[in-house]
């Protein structure tokens, strides 16, 4: 298990531990939970809605994505927003969100959010990098089998009334070689599934990773392309992966090989792939992601791959199973509630990571201060000066780039003192956001 996976597993365990605390234990929560507004777009799972409603928040669910102008209007007074891959939260949209504190990306990627600008506004962003891994891996296995038997073409012919019983250029996948580009959580799941079906597995990754089973890493992308019967991509969208597979790379692949992409639409040169399919260099392709994708369902899709032989096109459904969406819903919704209720930012993708555990039950007035400020010298000294006359039970701070994050539990002799503390900290020049949480 990689460090990232261990970190994610530990986070889920800690969250479960927090959620299962015994009845009677005091829990932290915002001063006015019922005033917290959460907006869910793109048909977020009902499990996520249930988790957030159980926290006492107001929830509005919209089944589709919103365009920029709609978002600007809708996001003005919400404290949290949940999206999937179609919604774009750019700096113009986020600038209109005066109350926004947390964004939940109910998917793997976060490139649809301006992460740096969000952090500068004190907005923490969470995603679910592993919950749909099995769903994507199973889709790739299904598509490898479909491509090897040309099931897509046979299906289309049958629907058109044509009976075409052939075995030429149709193959078993047993004994064939699958080349996995990107040996992360999806790649390793796929590796295990493919090997269990009798396939040889080779993989390439920019990081040194431990192979699973009898799979073997190769020294270069070129070596993988030359050797594999099926090449499948599982990489993030970065400047280095844009057009990772272009005309030259496709030319390196075996004649009769198949290419599968369920990662990001910019990773493959679509025009070069279409040409290789039409001239017969490649025997087939399966593509689930595209450089430009419609913002809603309907007859909007166009691609140079349409009509190519033995080509499976799917509308970005790699992680779209009920099981995956439920797991994503649980993980991201729990992160939203955890951040709003306790300030826990563990596994945030753009934010310093803090998870300060609440102390033992107290009969005194105990509150938690959560503060985001500019990461410049002297701010912690100002905060500690304000808190010096009070009993600070415990505190934690961390920084990431230009953003610093501070959390402290304080026991007060008089609950009215919180007004003095809040005014003092939020009045610091470098302050971005200050919140008060209390025990209930």
From TrEMBL:
Q: Which Pfam families match?
A: 2-Hacid_dh, 2-Hacid_dh_C
Q: Does the keyword Methyltransferase apply?
A: no
Q: Which UniProt keywords apply?
A: NAD, Oxidoreductase
Give the matching PROSITE patterns.
Answer: D_2_HYDROXYACID_DH_1, D_2_HYDROXYACID_DH_3
What InterPro entries would the database entry show?
A: ACT-like_dom_sf, D-iso_2-hydroxyacid_DH_PdxB, D-isomer_2_OHA_DH_cat_dom, D-isomer_DH_CS, D-isomer_DH_CS1, D-isomer_DH_NAD-bd, NAD(P)-bd_dom_sf
Molecular-function annotations in GO: (S)-2-hydroxyglutarate dehydrogenase activity; NAD binding; phosphoglycerate dehydrogenase activity
Q: Which GO terms describe its biological process?
A: L-serine biosynthetic process
Pathway the protein contributes to: Amino-acid biosynthesis
What are the D-isomer specific 2-hydroxyacid dehydrogenase NAD-binding domain coordinates in residue numbering? 142-318
Question: CDD domains recorded for this chain?
Answer: PGDH_3
Q: Which family does it belong to?
A: Belongs to the D-isomer specific 2-hydroxyacid dehydrogenase family.
Give the matching NCBIfam families. PRK11790.1
**Name of the protein in its database record:** D-3-phosphoglycerate dehydrogenase 1
- Native source organism of the sequence: Zancudomyces culisetae (Gut fungus)
């Amino acid at each position: 298990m990689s460090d990232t996976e261990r970190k994610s597993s530990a986070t889920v365990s800690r969250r479960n531990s927090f959620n299962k605390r015994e009845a009677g234990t005091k829990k932290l929560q915002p001063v006015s939970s019922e005033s917290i507004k959460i907006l869910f777009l793109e048909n977020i799972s009902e499990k996520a809605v249930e988790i957030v409603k159980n926290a006492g928040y107001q929830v509005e669910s919209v089944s589709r994505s919103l365009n920029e102008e709609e978002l600007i209007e809708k996001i003005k007074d919400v404290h949290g927003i949940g999206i999937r891959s179609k919604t774009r939260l750019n700096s113009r949209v986020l600038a209109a969100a005066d109350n926004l504190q947390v964004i939940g990306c109910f998917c793997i990627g976060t490139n649809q959010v301006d992460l740096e600008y969000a952090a500068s506004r004190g907005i923490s962003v969470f995603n679910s990098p592993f919950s749909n891994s099995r769903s994507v891996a199973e889709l790739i296995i299904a598509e490898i089998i479909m491509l090897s038997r040309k099931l897509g073409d046979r299906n289309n012919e049958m629907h058109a009334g044509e009976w075409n019983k052939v075995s030429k250029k149709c193959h078993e996948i047993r004994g064939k070689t699958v080349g996995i580009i990107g040996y992360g959580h999806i790649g390793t799941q796929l590796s295990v599934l493919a090997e269990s079906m009798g396939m040889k597995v080779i993989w390439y990754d920019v990081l040194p990773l431990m192979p699973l089973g009898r799979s073997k890493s190769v020294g270069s992308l070129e070596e993988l392309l030359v050797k594999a019967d099926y090449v499948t991509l599982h990489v993030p969208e970065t400047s280095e992966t844009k057009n990772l597979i272009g005309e030259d790379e496709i030319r390196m692949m075996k004649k009769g090989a198949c290419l599968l992409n369920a990662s990001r639409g910019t990773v493959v040169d679509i025009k070069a792939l279409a040409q290789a399919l039409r001239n017969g260099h490649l025997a087939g392709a399966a593509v689930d992601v595209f450089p430009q994708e419609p913002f809603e369902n309907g007859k909007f899709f166009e691609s140079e791959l349409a009509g190519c032989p033995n080509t499976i096109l799917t509308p970005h459904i790699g992680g779209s199973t009920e099981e995956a969406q439920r797991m994503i819903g649980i993980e991201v919704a729990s992160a939203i509630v955890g951040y709003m209720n306790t300030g826990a930012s563990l596994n945030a993708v753009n934010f310093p990571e803090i998870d300060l555990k609440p102390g033992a039950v107290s009969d005194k007035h105990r509150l938690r201060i959560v503060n985001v400020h500019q990461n410049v010298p002297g701010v912690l000294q100002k905060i500690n000066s304000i808190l010096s006359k009070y009993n600070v039970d415990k505190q934690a701070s961390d920084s990431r780039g230009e953003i610093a994050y501070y959390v402290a539990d304080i026991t007060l002799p008089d609950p009215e003192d919180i007004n003095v503390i809040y005014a003092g900290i939020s009045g610091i020049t470098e302050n971005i956001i200050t919140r008060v949480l209390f025990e209930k």
